[in-house]
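User: Run a structure prediction on this.
Assistant: Running it now.
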Amino acid sequence: MSRPYPAVFMLAWRFMMSKASDGFLSLISWVSVFGVSLGVLALVVVTSVINGFEGELVRVITGMNGDVLLYTRGEPLRDRGAVEEKIRRIVPSTLASTPSFVAEMMISGPNAVAGAILEGIDPETIGAVTAVPARIREGRLPTPLQEAAPATEPAEVMVGSSLADRIGAKIGTEARLVAPFLGGEGEEGAGSGAPRVFPVRVVGIVKMGMHEYDSKFVFAHLASVQKMLAYPGRITTFKLKLSSKANAREAADRLSEGFGYPFRARDWSQLNKNLFRAIEHQKVVIAICLVIIVIVAAFNVVSTLMMMIYDKTKEISILKAMGFRPGQSFQLFCLVGIGIGTVGTAIGVGLGVAVNVFLARTRLIDLPADIYSIGFLPVVTRWEEVLWIAVVSFSVCFLATIYPAYKVAVRPPLDGIRYE
């Protein structure tokens, strides 16, 4: 399409704002703009909400487990220092690491009994790798049991917020941890497989922001867990924090290969692989459905142009008789359709971004955390996706103008003035 003349721009503006037919054409033009805006608005907001879910899950998972999780599927490890040195040798991009001891337990509180995952943490290094200390809602991190403490001395624990609500635990509440099948070494009854009960006292409540973690995890000092479970100095898991430019998946693969069986390393994306895959598929399906809304709005643009051609038949024919070339007629109605698409896309993008900012700042919409894993509606605007949405909307509207513009360009001028 050749460069339009200034007169073509002026005529396109006059046709869009036409007051002919009692203002009906002007109304239809704005209805077309509204249809395009609505489709673009829906695309911007919905894709941003899905991005928000994905980003919030990444934040919570890395805040709980670090970038990479290295664990043993066999007996707990003895030499913590040698393992950490080997980790840094295999993955030089490791910024920090923290050890832990993880065991499946049951916890009995004042109101209920629930399954739990007991994790012994090192308070000196946990904050450098995870966000657990920053997510404490009440209380503090647990301190270790004394070496000479009797078996009846309660160990200090920190409980997930949903688990605390379920069992009725508050700061200072006495509870019991039950190990159904206890292994261990060096203590009477260890390795017998007999259940054991450990008294604990709640000194902190933590809210990670994901129901899967908040409803299951109980944190205690690493030394306390090692003493209770009769595994002195043993470790089951290492959590790693990598540099921002490091590839977590490659680091996990190198660790799995470097350590071999019974070790296994998983990066943050592998910890909830099915959930992330479902989010990606859902994003594609919803985007396709919403693009169809924009296409439907583009059909409204076609109908607007066809009605405009019918209403302006005499004017177009007179212009052609005065020397208005077919190419200029084609440009005229392409500009009308492009104008509708541009205005509709700009309004839709502006409103969509405004809604995203409002939802992100206010967290107005609450969600049931036990269903959606997250208790609020997260929103993350990715500008490259907003740009693609704008380009797709503009392109669809432009393609919709081609047929009506072509029809008016090839129409003989006598058809419009024959009966005048």
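The chain is about 55% helix and 15% strand.
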